[in-house]
Design goal:
With 385 residues, the chain is α/β, with parallel strands linked by helices. It has 2 domains: 227 residues, Rossmann fold (3-Layer(aba) Sandwich), CATH 3.40.50; 150 residues, no CATH class. 30% of the residues lie in helices and 18% in strands. The radius of gyration is 27 Å and the shape is elongated. The relative contact order is 0.12.
Length: 385
Protein backbone atom coordinates (compact mmCIF):
# COMPACT_ATOMS: atom_id res chain seq x y z
CA UNK A 1 0.00 0.00 0.00
CA UNK A 2 2.85 2.40 0.81
CA UNK A 3 4.16 2.19 -2.77
CA UNK A 4 0.74 2.98 -4.22
CA UNK A 5 0.29 5.94 -1.87
CA UNK A 6 3.65 7.24 -3.09
CA UNK A 7 2.50 6.75 -6.69
CA UNK A 8 -0.64 8.82 -6.04
CA UNK A 9 1.32 11.64 -4.44
CA UNK A 10 3.87 11.51 -7.24
CA UNK A 11 1.11 11.85 -9.86
CA UNK A 12 -0.34 14.86 -8.06
CA UNK A 13 3.10 16.42 -7.88
CA UNK A 14 3.33 16.12 -11.68
CA UNK A 15 -0.12 17.69 -12.11
CA UNK A 16 -2.00 14.48 -12.87
CA UNK A 17 -5.20 13.01 -11.45
CA UNK A 18 -5.30 9.36 -10.39
CA UNK A 19 -7.58 6.44 -11.26
CA UNK A 20 -7.45 3.30 -9.11
CA UNK A 21 -8.51 0.46 -11.39
CA UNK A 22 -9.17 -3.20 -10.61
CA UNK A 23 -11.60 -5.91 -9.49
CA UNK A 24 -13.55 -5.59 -6.24
CA UNK A 25 -11.78 -6.47 -2.97
CA UNK A 26 -8.30 -5.51 -4.19
CA UNK A 27 -7.84 -2.73 -1.63
CA UNK A 28 -9.07 0.37 -3.49
CA UNK A 29 -11.26 1.58 -0.64
CA UNK A 30 -8.60 0.77 1.94
CA UNK A 31 -5.99 2.69 -0.04
CA UNK A 32 -8.28 5.70 -0.21
CA UNK A 33 -8.84 5.48 3.56
CA UNK A 34 -5.07 5.49 4.12
CA UNK A 35 -4.68 8.42 1.74
CA UNK A 36 -7.40 10.28 3.65
CA UNK A 37 -5.43 9.81 6.87
CA UNK A 38 -2.17 10.88 5.24
CA UNK A 39 -3.77 14.12 4.00
CA UNK A 40 -5.07 14.88 7.50
CA UNK A 41 -1.92 13.86 9.38
CA UNK A 42 1.18 13.47 7.19
CA UNK A 43 3.39 10.56 8.34
CA UNK A 44 6.89 10.97 9.64
CA UNK A 45 9.55 11.67 7.05
CA UNK A 46 12.39 9.20 6.60
CA UNK A 47 14.83 12.12 6.43
CA UNK A 48 15.78 14.86 8.84
CA UNK A 49 15.79 15.08 12.64
CA UNK A 50 14.09 17.52 15.00
CA UNK A 51 15.73 18.21 18.38
CA UNK A 52 13.53 19.18 21.31
CA UNK A 53 15.88 20.01 24.24
CA UNK A 54 12.89 20.27 26.60
CA UNK A 55 11.92 16.62 26.00
CA UNK A 56 14.27 14.51 28.10
CA UNK A 57 12.63 11.21 27.16
CA UNK A 58 12.50 11.51 23.37
CA UNK A 59 14.50 14.62 22.38
CA UNK A 60 14.89 13.50 18.77
CA UNK A 61 12.03 12.99 16.32
CA UNK A 62 11.36 12.99 12.63
CA UNK A 63 9.62 15.90 10.92
CA UNK A 64 6.34 15.33 9.11
CA UNK A 65 6.69 14.14 5.53
CA UNK A 66 6.28 16.95 3.03
CA UNK A 67 3.23 16.42 0.84
CA UNK A 68 3.39 17.60 -2.78
CA UNK A 69 0.14 19.57 -2.44
CA UNK A 70 -0.35 22.71 -0.33
CA UNK A 71 -1.62 22.30 3.23
CA UNK A 72 -4.19 22.35 4.72
CA UNK A 73 -6.26 20.14 2.44
CA UNK A 74 -10.03 20.04 2.14
CA UNK A 75 -11.28 16.55 1.31
CA UNK A 76 -14.55 15.96 -0.55
CA UNK A 77 -16.15 12.57 -1.22
CA UNK A 78 -18.68 11.76 -3.93
CA UNK A 79 -19.95 8.63 -5.69
CA UNK A 80 -21.01 8.49 -9.32
CA UNK A 81 -24.15 6.54 -10.18
CA UNK A 82 -26.61 6.27 -13.05
CA UNK A 83 -28.69 9.29 -12.04
CA UNK A 84 -25.69 11.47 -11.11
CA UNK A 85 -25.33 14.36 -13.52
CA UNK A 86 -23.59 17.57 -14.54
CA UNK A 87 -25.84 19.51 -12.18
CA UNK A 88 -24.52 17.47 -9.21
CA UNK A 89 -20.86 17.75 -10.10
CA UNK A 90 -20.49 21.11 -11.88
CA UNK A 91 -23.50 23.43 -11.86
CA UNK A 92 -27.23 22.97 -11.48
CA UNK A 93 -30.19 25.30 -11.71
CA UNK A 94 -32.80 24.84 -8.99
CA UNK A 95 -36.17 26.59 -8.72
CA UNK A 96 -36.62 29.29 -6.08
CA UNK A 97 -39.93 30.90 -5.14
CA UNK A 98 -39.86 34.68 -4.91
CA UNK A 99 -42.49 37.40 -4.56
CA UNK A 100 -42.32 37.99 -8.29
CA UNK A 101 -42.63 34.30 -9.16
CA UNK A 102 -40.33 31.34 -9.68
CA UNK A 103 -36.76 31.78 -10.82
CA UNK A 104 -33.84 29.42 -11.31
CA UNK A 105 -30.83 29.94 -9.09
CA UNK A 106 -27.38 28.48 -9.87
CA UNK A 107 -26.14 25.91 -7.36
CA UNK A 108 -22.47 24.86 -7.52
CA UNK A 109 -21.73 21.16 -7.74
CA UNK A 110 -18.79 19.37 -6.17
CA UNK A 111 -16.16 20.32 -8.77
CA UNK A 112 -17.14 23.99 -9.14
CA UNK A 113 -17.53 24.32 -5.37
CA UNK A 114 -13.92 23.19 -4.95
CA UNK A 115 -12.83 25.97 -7.32
CA UNK A 116 -14.90 28.52 -5.41
CA UNK A 117 -13.39 27.31 -2.13
CA UNK A 118 -9.85 28.05 -3.28
CA UNK A 119 -10.83 31.42 -4.75
CA UNK A 120 -12.36 32.52 -1.43
CA UNK A 121 -9.80 34.77 0.34
CA UNK A 122 -11.27 33.76 3.73
CA UNK A 123 -10.86 30.03 3.12
CA UNK A 124 -8.58 28.12 5.46
CA UNK A 125 -7.69 25.62 2.72
CA UNK A 126 -4.93 25.78 0.14
CA UNK A 127 -5.90 22.70 -1.88
CA UNK A 128 -8.89 20.40 -2.37
CA UNK A 129 -8.86 16.65 -2.96
CA UNK A 130 -11.97 15.10 -4.49
CA UNK A 131 -12.48 11.37 -4.03
CA UNK A 132 -14.78 9.90 -6.70
CA UNK A 133 -15.94 6.39 -5.95
CA UNK A 134 -17.19 4.20 -8.83
CA UNK A 135 -16.38 6.76 -11.52
CA UNK A 136 -17.58 4.37 -14.24
CA UNK A 137 -21.02 3.88 -12.64
CA UNK A 138 -22.16 7.20 -14.09
CA UNK A 139 -21.79 8.73 -17.52
CA UNK A 140 -18.54 10.50 -16.62
CA UNK A 141 -18.23 12.36 -19.94
CA UNK A 142 -21.69 13.92 -19.43
CA UNK A 143 -21.07 14.57 -15.73
CA UNK A 144 -17.88 16.55 -16.39
CA UNK A 145 -19.17 18.20 -19.56
CA UNK A 146 -16.93 21.02 -20.77
CA UNK A 147 -15.23 20.99 -17.37
CA UNK A 148 -13.40 17.86 -18.50
CA UNK A 149 -10.89 20.35 -19.93
CA UNK A 150 -9.96 21.44 -16.41
CA UNK A 151 -8.93 17.96 -15.39
CA UNK A 152 -5.82 18.88 -17.36
CA UNK A 153 -3.65 21.12 -15.16
CA UNK A 154 -2.26 22.88 -18.24
CA UNK A 155 -5.58 24.70 -18.69
CA UNK A 156 -5.86 25.88 -15.10
CA UNK A 157 -4.55 28.98 -13.38
CA UNK A 158 -0.76 29.24 -13.86
CA UNK A 159 -0.95 26.51 -16.51
CA UNK A 160 0.66 26.65 -19.92
CA UNK A 161 -2.64 27.58 -21.63
CA UNK A 162 -4.78 29.04 -18.86
CA UNK A 163 -8.43 29.22 -19.98
CA UNK A 164 -11.38 31.19 -18.53
CA UNK A 165 -14.11 29.23 -16.79
CA UNK A 166 -17.10 28.57 -19.10
CA UNK A 167 -20.38 29.10 -17.20
CA UNK A 168 -22.95 29.57 -19.94
CA UNK A 169 -25.85 28.87 -17.58
CA UNK A 170 -24.95 31.93 -15.48
CA UNK A 171 -25.81 35.54 -16.30
CA UNK A 172 -23.06 38.19 -16.17
CA UNK A 173 -23.68 41.88 -15.55
CA UNK A 174 -20.89 44.44 -15.41
CA UNK A 175 -18.20 41.77 -15.38
CA UNK A 176 -19.71 39.87 -12.44
CA UNK A 177 -21.88 36.77 -12.47
CA UNK A 178 -25.25 36.54 -10.82
CA UNK A 179 -25.19 35.05 -7.34
CA UNK A 180 -24.08 31.43 -7.23
CA UNK A 181 -24.97 29.34 -4.21
CA UNK A 182 -22.34 27.02 -2.82
CA UNK A 183 -22.80 23.56 -1.28
CA UNK A 184 -22.65 24.87 2.29
CA UNK A 185 -24.96 27.82 1.62
CA UNK A 186 -22.47 30.62 0.89
CA UNK A 187 -23.33 33.10 -1.84
CA UNK A 188 -20.60 34.16 -4.28
CA UNK A 189 -20.16 36.00 -7.56
CA UNK A 190 -17.55 35.07 -10.16
CA UNK A 191 -15.78 37.70 -12.26
CA UNK A 192 -15.74 37.17 -16.00
CA UNK A 193 -12.51 35.55 -17.13
CA UNK A 194 -12.22 33.60 -13.86
CA UNK A 195 -9.49 30.93 -14.09
CA UNK A 196 -9.87 27.46 -12.60
CA UNK A 197 -7.56 27.11 -9.52
CA UNK A 198 -4.52 24.90 -9.82
CA UNK A 199 -4.59 22.95 -6.58
CA UNK A 200 -7.62 20.71 -7.05
CA UNK A 201 -6.76 17.02 -7.21
CA UNK A 202 -8.87 13.97 -8.00
CA UNK A 203 -8.47 10.34 -7.08
CA UNK A 204 -11.15 8.04 -8.51
CA UNK A 205 -11.91 4.33 -8.24
CA UNK A 206 -13.12 2.12 -11.06
CA UNK A 207 -14.44 -1.43 -10.84
CA UNK A 208 -13.01 -3.43 -13.75
CA UNK A 209 -15.66 -6.18 -13.46
CA UNK A 210 -18.90 -4.19 -13.46
CA UNK A 211 -20.63 -4.95 -16.77
CA UNK A 212 -23.45 -2.52 -15.98
CA UNK A 213 -21.05 0.40 -15.80
CA UNK A 214 -20.53 2.95 -18.55
CA UNK A 215 -17.15 2.62 -20.34
CA UNK A 216 -14.76 5.44 -19.53
CA UNK A 217 -14.48 7.95 -22.36
CA UNK A 218 -10.97 7.92 -23.86
CA UNK A 219 -10.69 11.71 -23.57
CA UNK A 220 -11.43 11.37 -19.86
CA UNK A 221 -9.19 8.35 -19.32
CA UNK A 222 -6.08 10.04 -20.72
CA UNK A 223 -6.41 12.78 -18.11
CA UNK A 224 -5.75 10.25 -15.33
CA UNK A 225 -2.72 8.25 -14.30
CA UNK A 226 -4.02 4.70 -13.93
CA UNK A 227 -2.85 2.68 -10.92
CA UNK A 228 -3.87 -0.93 -11.28
CA UNK A 229 -5.06 -2.67 -8.12
CA UNK A 230 -4.39 -6.39 -8.51
CA UNK A 231 -5.25 -9.35 -6.30
CA UNK A 232 -2.31 -9.74 -3.94
CA UNK A 233 -1.75 -13.14 -2.34
CA UNK A 234 1.08 -11.73 -0.22
CA UNK A 235 -1.47 -9.71 1.76
CA UNK A 236 -3.17 -12.95 2.79
CA UNK A 237 0.13 -14.67 3.54
CA UNK A 238 1.17 -11.81 5.82
CA UNK A 239 -2.19 -11.80 7.59
CA UNK A 240 -2.15 -15.55 8.16
CA UNK A 241 1.53 -15.87 9.03
CA UNK A 242 2.34 -17.99 5.97
CA UNK A 243 5.77 -18.15 4.41
CA UNK A 244 4.92 -18.14 0.72
CA UNK A 245 8.01 -20.07 -0.34
CA UNK A 246 7.01 -22.87 2.04
CA UNK A 247 3.44 -23.33 0.87
CA UNK A 248 3.33 -26.83 -0.66
CA UNK A 249 2.21 -27.50 -4.20
CA UNK A 250 -0.75 -29.88 -3.71
CA UNK A 251 -0.24 -33.26 -5.36
CA UNK A 252 -1.25 -36.90 -4.87
CA UNK A 253 0.94 -37.22 -1.79
CA UNK A 254 0.11 -34.12 0.22
CA UNK A 255 -3.25 -32.69 -0.89
CA UNK A 256 -5.07 -34.15 2.13
CA UNK A 257 -2.64 -32.50 4.58
CA UNK A 258 -3.13 -28.83 3.65
CA UNK A 259 -4.27 -26.57 6.48
CA UNK A 260 -7.17 -24.12 5.91
CA UNK A 261 -4.95 -21.07 5.35
CA UNK A 262 -2.72 -22.84 2.82
CA UNK A 263 -5.87 -24.10 1.12
CA UNK A 264 -7.46 -20.64 0.99
CA UNK A 265 -4.26 -19.13 -0.41
CA UNK A 266 -4.02 -21.79 -3.12
CA UNK A 267 -7.76 -21.61 -3.80
CA UNK A 268 -7.62 -17.93 -4.73
CA UNK A 269 -4.56 -18.54 -6.88
CA UNK A 270 -6.25 -21.49 -8.63
CA UNK A 271 -9.46 -19.57 -9.34
CA UNK A 272 -7.70 -16.44 -10.57
CA UNK A 273 -5.43 -18.29 -12.97
CA UNK A 274 -8.48 -19.99 -14.49
CA UNK A 275 -10.46 -16.74 -14.63
CA UNK A 276 -7.58 -14.81 -16.19
CA UNK A 277 -7.17 -17.51 -18.86
CA UNK A 278 -10.91 -17.63 -19.63
CA UNK A 279 -12.06 -14.03 -19.20
CA UNK A 280 -9.03 -11.82 -18.66
CA UNK A 281 -7.18 -10.58 -15.56
CA UNK A 282 -9.63 -7.74 -14.96
CA UNK A 283 -12.20 -10.35 -13.87
CA UNK A 284 -10.07 -11.96 -11.17
CA UNK A 285 -11.19 -12.21 -7.54
CA UNK A 286 -9.74 -9.77 -5.01
CA UNK A 287 -7.79 -10.99 -1.99
CA UNK A 288 -10.13 -8.98 0.26
CA UNK A 289 -12.75 -11.70 -0.18
CA UNK A 290 -10.71 -13.93 2.13
CA UNK A 291 -9.38 -11.50 4.72
CA UNK A 292 -12.31 -12.44 6.98
CA UNK A 293 -10.57 -15.72 7.84
CA UNK A 294 -9.32 -15.04 11.36
CA UNK A 295 -6.06 -16.39 12.68
CA UNK A 296 -7.42 -16.03 16.23
CA UNK A 297 -9.89 -18.89 15.82
CA UNK A 298 -9.23 -21.53 18.49
CA UNK A 299 -10.37 -24.42 16.34
CA UNK A 300 -9.06 -25.32 12.88
CA UNK A 301 -12.53 -26.65 12.07
CA UNK A 302 -13.92 -23.16 12.71
CA UNK A 303 -11.53 -21.76 10.11
CA UNK A 304 -12.68 -24.37 7.59
CA UNK A 305 -16.26 -23.33 8.32
CA UNK A 306 -15.32 -19.66 7.82
CA UNK A 307 -13.77 -20.54 4.46
CA UNK A 308 -16.97 -22.37 3.47
CA UNK A 309 -19.04 -19.36 4.51
CA UNK A 310 -16.81 -17.02 2.49
CA UNK A 311 -17.32 -19.33 -0.49
CA UNK A 312 -21.11 -19.32 -0.11
CA UNK A 313 -21.51 -15.61 0.52
CA UNK A 314 -18.93 -13.85 -1.65
CA UNK A 315 -16.75 -16.14 -3.77
CA UNK A 316 -19.22 -18.45 -5.50
CA UNK A 317 -21.76 -15.67 -6.27
CA UNK A 318 -18.97 -13.82 -8.10
CA UNK A 319 -18.02 -16.97 -9.98
CA UNK A 320 -21.66 -17.40 -11.05
CA UNK A 321 -21.68 -13.81 -12.28
CA UNK A 322 -18.44 -14.18 -14.23
CA UNK A 323 -19.50 -17.47 -15.81
CA UNK A 324 -23.09 -16.47 -16.50
CA UNK A 325 -24.17 -18.24 -19.69
CA UNK A 326 -21.05 -20.44 -19.64
CA UNK A 327 -22.02 -23.39 -17.40
CA UNK A 328 -19.52 -25.83 -18.91
CA UNK A 329 -16.58 -23.60 -18.02
CA UNK A 330 -17.81 -23.35 -14.42
CA UNK A 331 -18.30 -27.12 -14.25
CA UNK A 332 -14.76 -27.60 -15.51
CA UNK A 333 -13.37 -25.04 -13.06
CA UNK A 334 -14.96 -26.88 -10.13
CA UNK A 335 -13.69 -30.28 -11.36
CA UNK A 336 -17.19 -31.73 -11.25
CA UNK A 337 -16.39 -34.43 -13.80
CA UNK A 338 -13.29 -35.50 -11.87
CA UNK A 339 -14.28 -35.90 -8.19
CA UNK A 340 -12.17 -37.65 -5.53
CA UNK A 341 -12.06 -41.45 -5.79
CA UNK A 342 -13.32 -41.81 -2.23
CA UNK A 343 -15.58 -39.69 -0.06
CA UNK A 344 -18.23 -37.15 -0.99
CA UNK A 345 -17.52 -34.03 -3.04
CA UNK A 346 -19.42 -30.77 -2.74
CA UNK A 347 -19.94 -30.04 -6.43
CA UNK A 348 -22.04 -32.47 -8.45
CA UNK A 349 -24.35 -32.47 -11.46
CA UNK A 350 -28.11 -32.44 -11.00
CA UNK A 351 -30.14 -35.55 -11.69
CA UNK A 352 -33.91 -35.58 -12.26
CA UNK A 353 -35.99 -37.68 -9.86
CA UNK A 354 -37.24 -39.88 -12.70
CA UNK A 355 -33.85 -40.36 -14.33
CA UNK A 356 -30.37 -41.52 -13.45
CA UNK A 357 -28.78 -39.46 -16.21
CA UNK A 358 -27.19 -36.25 -14.84
CA UNK A 359 -27.92 -32.95 -16.52
CA UNK A 360 -25.08 -30.57 -17.38
CA UNK A 361 -25.99 -28.19 -14.60
CA UNK A 362 -24.71 -27.87 -11.05
CA UNK A 363 -26.60 -29.09 -8.00
CA UNK A 364 -27.25 -26.14 -5.67
CA UNK A 365 -25.16 -26.51 -2.52
CA UNK A 366 -24.16 -24.43 0.47
CA UNK A 367 -20.75 -25.55 1.65
CA UNK A 368 -21.24 -24.07 5.10
CA UNK A 369 -24.05 -26.56 5.69
CA UNK A 370 -21.83 -29.57 4.94
CA UNK A 371 -19.84 -31.45 7.53
CA UNK A 372 -16.27 -30.27 8.06
CA UNK A 373 -14.66 -33.35 6.51
CA UNK A 374 -16.54 -32.84 3.25
CA UNK A 375 -15.58 -29.16 3.24
CA UNK A 376 -11.91 -30.05 3.70
CA UNK A 377 -11.97 -32.74 1.02
CA UNK A 378 -13.78 -30.54 -1.50
CA UNK A 379 -11.51 -27.51 -1.20
CA UNK A 380 -8.32 -29.56 -1.10
CA UNK A 381 -9.34 -31.60 -4.15
CA UNK A 382 -10.33 -28.49 -6.07
CA UNK A 383 -6.82 -27.03 -5.83
CA UNK A 384 -4.91 -30.32 -6.32
CA UNK A 385 -2.52 -30.16 -9.25
Amino acid sequence: MTDKLSNILSSWEKGRNVLLYGPPATGKTRLISELFQVLGTPPESTKGIILDPDDAVTPFSRPQQDLPIPQPVKVVWTTFHQSYGYEDFVLGLIPEMTESGTKLKPLAGVFLDAALELSDPTSEYNSVVIFIDEINRGNAARIFGEFMTFLDFDYREDGRVSLPLPLRQVKYIGGQSETIYRVEGQEVQIPSGFKFPKHIYIVATMNSVDRAAVPIDSALARRFDRIEMRPNLSVLADQWGLKESSIPIPDDDNWEDLNPFETAYLLLDHLNIAIAADLGPEFELGHGLLTQLATSQTSENDIWQDLAKAWDEVIYPQLEDRYSGRPEQLIELLRVDNPPLTGSYAWTLRTALNSSIPARTLTPVRLSELNTEEIKRSFRWLIRS
